[in-house]
Design goal:
- The longest helix is centred in the last third of the chain and has 14 residues.
- This protein is an alpha+beta fold.
- The protein has a single domain, classed as Alpha-Beta Complex (Aspartate Aminotransferase, domain 1).
């Protein structure tokens, strides 16, 4: 799946101000994921931004322009969402979403590493 390379560049530009973070870009979820300190933080999925944030912020985030819930097995997945382009058109809006993801990152659980065969 193709992803919005301009959005990926905007995310890179924002993350560049944090030189102490270990940032890795990886193809995941049909798009480009930005892993911070080994954990998925934000993802460019098609034209959308996929966010991983503190689940307690779900109600606040759901009120933002462009919000779409992330559905897994027919249920909303708390702490994850998609934001359509209208929700991050303005620089300050994009920065809000990236920042809540960065704030959650230190306490987010890392995914289990798959064993090599």
């Amino acid at each position: 799946m193709a992803y919005d390379t301009a959005l990926a560049d905007r995310i890179r530009e924002y993350l560049a101000q944090f030189p102490t973070l270990e940032i890795e870009e990886k193809t995941m979820f049909g798009g480009l994921a930005f892993l911070v300190n080994g954990k998925m933080c934000v993802n460019v999925s098609g034209d959308n931004l996929m966010c991983r944030f503190e689940p307690d912020l779900q109600k606040e985030v759901a009120e933002k322009r462009g919000y779409e819930p992330m559905i897994m097995k027919g249920k909303d997945l708390p702490g994850y969402c998609y934001i359509t382009p209208e929700g991050f058109k303005r620089k300050k809006d994009l920065h809000y979403f990236i920042q809540i993801c960065l704030e959650f990152n230190p306490i987010a659980r890392a995914s289990r590493k798959k064993g090599k065969v």
